[in-house]
Design a protein that fits this description.
single chain, 246 residues, alpha/beta, Glycerol-3-phosphate (1)-acyltransferase, 8 helices, 16% strand
């Protein structure tokens, strides 16, 4: 059994690498367009299929398809981004660490599509980069933050960064908490591990109104975001547990 899982993982990563490069090239050509959106989601679904992830999506309340939101999620695995892209029904622009921008072709494609790369050690520069993206206009596009800033290797959430709260306050855009569960079991966050096919749940919590929060009291919004994400994560874990019992 372990041999089959190893072979699946080895050839799976080759397929994912080839798919990532080919889809990135298409996005470079397409830029920030509906065509690129379709390409990106096709890549995400392919990534999930190769790893054996069975996606479960739950939305606690209907989200306005015409509104922009600031999405905030926990981060457990490299499978998180494909799972979210496959689950969400609107364009997303990730706010990601600048190290990812150095990946050949991938980084170029992401910039062409409007995703934002920031230096986590440079707060002012990060703020300018996010503001620059906001100034271009969102028009229904959502901003996405992995609020912990990096992948957690345990079930406990890491401290939340303030970028998502600042972006929400400055734009007046409500926040949507997202809880992910199961992804770490399929694809471990660190090191080399075989794929372990199984359920992955993505739960979209109720929007958090940003009205009434000021930039001076952004820490309060960060705490509200964290509590909401914790609640969504608990729901996602329950969905994964139920799927495994079937």
């Amino acid at each position: 059994m372990i041999v089959l899982l190893f072979l699946r993982t080895f050839f799976g990563w080759l397929l994912i690498l080839l798919a990532t490069m080919s889809h990135a090239l298409l996005i470079v050509l397409g830029g920030e367009s509906d065509f690129s959106e379709r390409v990106l989601r096709r890549w995400a679904r392919f990534f999930l299929w190769v790893t054996g992830a069975q996606l479960i999506v739950q939305c606690d309340v209907p989200l306005d398809p015409q509104k922009s939101y600031v999405y905030i999620s926990n981060h457990t695995s490299n499978l998180d981004a494909p799972a979210i892209l496959a689950a969400v029904d609107r364009p997303l622009r990730f706010i990601a660490k600048r190290e990812l921008a150095r990946i050949p072709l991938f980084g170029w494609a992401a910039r062409r599509m409007g995703h934002v790369f920031i230096d986590r050690k440079d707060r002012k520069g990060s703020t300018r980069a996010i503001r620059s993206r906001i100034d271009k206009g969102l028009g229904g596009v959502a901003l996405f933050f992995f609020a912990e800033g990096t992948r957690s290797t345990t079930d406990a959430l890491l401290p939340f960064k303030k970028g998502a709260a600042v972006a929400a306050i400055e734009t007046g855009i409500d926040c949507v908490p997202i809880g992910l569960a199961g992804a770490r079991d399929v694809l471990q966050p660190k090191g080399l591990h075989v794929f372990q096919p199984g359920p992955v749940a993505v739960v979209f919590g109720a929007p958090i109104p940003v009205q009434g929060h000021s930039i001076e009291e952004r820490d309060l919004l960060v705490e509200v975001q964290r509590t909401a994400v914790e609640r969504a994560v608990a729901e996602a874990r329950a969905l994964v547990s139920a799927a495994r019992r079937r």
